[in-house]
Amino acid sequence: MKFAATFLAGLTLVEGFTQQPANVARPAVAAPQMSEEAQVPMLEIKEKVPLDGAAPLLTDQKLFLGELYWDKLTTEIGSAETGTYLRAAEIKHGRSAMLATIGFALQKLGVTFDKISPHEYLSVSQNIKFADLAAMGPIEAIKTVPAEGFAQIFGLIAAIEIYELTHRDGEIKEDERVAPGLQAGGLTGYQLNYNPLNIPITDRRKFVELQNGRAAMFAICAWVAAETTPGSVPLPLPW
Q1: What is the pTM of this model?
Q2: 88-106 confidence digits (pLDDT tens)
Q3: Disulfide: which of 1, 20, 46, 212 matches 75 by Cβ 3.0-4.6 Å?
């Protein structure tokens, strides 16, 4: 009984030291407040990237097919440098298409290497003559070119691409950690700067090259389709 009375007295003493009066207000802990600028995130509004190369209509207005996707790629997904890269890719594809269109047309017109080349053979080891290619259509002729011929073509293309990746203003940049062509906005399509006739490169000439390249891409696609699938071009119309 003495032990129980002593234990209860100790609990009462501890409670007296720890319990606070009811009328004593506890200090309130202020919740962290955010400024209005931090609460409402500001949307970054990027400036619209200019659409150079839009096709002129009969009026003063110009038409640019795919403007919605251009804005999305150059503002939402990428930047102005993305537009520079896309334009360089379009220029290169247009140049390739123009070369392909000229070669396709010359083959169809009979202007072939067997009439202008001093060599009789395309490949002596495989016994392929230029006259054999002249008797074929453009698609069959390109299929007959041996693998070594394609290796030379792609080797030349690779040399041009490496030059454009490593050079700026006609000089190789050895002191830069990232090649100029791999930097943002580095590829423009004009790094090679091959102009032996010193023709003035104006904005008008660039626009004409761009438009001719676009037309050539449509033309070579249509010609290849017509050559491989008879009746596919022109498209059959219901009337």
Answers
A1: 0.74
A2: 999 999 999 999 999 999 9
A3: 46
